[in-house]
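Spend some time on the protein that follows and explain the fold to me:
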Amino acid sequence: MPLDFTAIDFETANSSNASACAVGLTRVRGGEVVATAGWLIQPPPGHDVFFELNTRIHGLRQEDVIGAKGWSEQLDDLAAFAGADVLVAHNAGFDMMVIKRACEATGDQCPPYRYVCSLQVARKLYQLDSYRLPSVAAAAGFLDFPHHDPSADALACAHIMIDAARRVGVDDIGALAEAAGVRTSQIVVPVREPVPALPVLEPLFAIA
């Protein structure tokens, strides 16, 4: 099977995982980057305060997301780009938790994406002093990108996985995870119980 996946990276407005304020995406087909995308997001209400610490990291402020789609409105765009792909992210547990918590905050059904962590793969296949995204990307030959720009980070993550697959001689995302000794995980989505229909009651008395 070809090396197909979508790399993803989120930035958040504050310490809440639900506070997604930007996303970057990179689509890989047959071990080649074929499409990239990224956009700003208005964080869900109650999770929309921008902490100065986060702003210092990614440079985004409240005024930057004015007019951007909210989480619910952009979720279809995200799903349309990713399709049924396995998602890949550097420290993927964080990015998958963003999807899950933001959906919980808005009441949206969370897509049960399967995912592989490029950080875990890198720790198995590369011998480095640091496994931060810029360091691993440099080892994979992807240099000088604006770290914490989500589109650039997603592209860097994609190049790490492409390089890792070449190193171990596989051409499938599942085979890469297996060769590296890491799991292909899945977002655990609670099953929504159907709401029972209310019985139709006979009137207690007739209106003349």
